[in-house]
C-alpha cells in the first residue's frame, strides 16, 4: 500500500531544492525568456526547474508516471501513480519581478489527487497536504500551521479572488461573474495559485477561474480539500478534471455553481 506520508516528505525535499534554484535566479534576473506556441512566456528557469523535479522523482519513484507543463508526459493509467508538475505557476509574474509565483507538484492515484506541495519562495510561503494527513502551511521555514477554510455561509459576507475577466467573457459568463462580484463582500485579483491557497487558509472564501490546465490545478486540490474546502470544475465535477475551477469553503459552493456553471 502506498505511504502518502512518505510521498509528502519527498515533495517537501524536492521543494527545498527547487526553491533555492528558482529564487536565486529570480533575484539575480539572470535568465532568458521565450515565447511558446500559445504566445505565453516561458523562461529557461521554468524548464530547468521541471528538469530538476523530473530527475528527483525518477530517482525516488522510478515506477511512477510524470506529467509536466514544459515537457508533457504520460496520460494517467488506472493503477499507476502520476506526478503532475507546474515548475513555475505565474511565469508572467516571475519574468516581471512580481513575487507571486510558485512551484506546484501533485501526486495522482487512481484519478484522485492525494498529495501536493505549493511552494512560493519569493513570498517565503509554502503549503502542502496529504490525503488523511491534513493541510498545512509555513512562513519563512517556520513551524507548520494547519489550514482550515472559513465558515462564511452568506455571499454578502464572502471574499472572492480571481485572475482576470477575459476568460469569463469568452465562456459567455461575464454577466454572471460580474453579478457575483456585486453580491459578495469583497473582490480581489490575487490570481493563480495564491487565490486557492488563501481559500485553504480561510482568509478568502471563493476562488474561480474559467480557463486552466491540469498542471495549474492538480497541486491545489489536496490543499483545499484537506482544509475542509471543495474543489470542482465549473460543471461541478470533483477535482481537476475540467479546464476550469471553483474552490470554496464548501458552504458557498452550490450557490456559486448555480451562477457560474454550465456553458
What do you see in this structure?
The N and C termini lie far apart (40 Å). The radius of gyration is 17 Å and the shape is globular. Helix content is 35%, strand content 26%. The chain has 9 helices and 15 strands. The chain is α+β, with helices and mostly antiparallel strands. The model has no long low-confidence stretch (mean pLDDT 94). The chain has an 8-stranded mixed beta sheet, sandwiched between helices. Strands 12-11-13-15-14 form a 5-stranded mixed beta sheet, sandwiched between helices. Strands 1-2 form a two-stranded antiparallel sheet. Belongs to the inositol monophosphatase superfamily. It is an enzyme of class 3 (hydrolase).
Features:
263 residues; alpha+beta; eight-stranded mixed β-sheet; globular
Q: How would you summarize this macromolecular structure in one to three sentences?
A:
It is an enzyme of class 3 (hydrolase). This protein has 9 helices and 15 strands.
Distance between the termini: 40 Å
Structural class: alpha+beta
**Biggest pleated-sheet summary:** 8 strands, mixed
Unreliable stretches covering 5 or more consecutive residues: none
Whole-number radius of gyration?
A: 17 Å
Shape: globular
Arithmetic mean pLDDT: 94
By DSSP (H or I, 4+ residues per run), the number of helices equals 9
Q: How many β-strand runs?
A: 15
Beta-strand proportion: 25-35%
Lateral arrangement of strands in the main beta sheet: 4-3-5-6-7-8-9-10
Order of helices and strands: HEEHEEEHEEEEEEHHEHEHHEEH
The share of residues in helices is 25-40%
Binding site for Mg(2+): 69, 86, 88-89, 216
Pfam family, one: Inositol_P
GO molecular function, one term: inositol monophosphate 1-phosphatase activity
Function: Catalyzes the dephosphorylation of histidinol-phosphate to histidinol, the direct precursor of histidine.
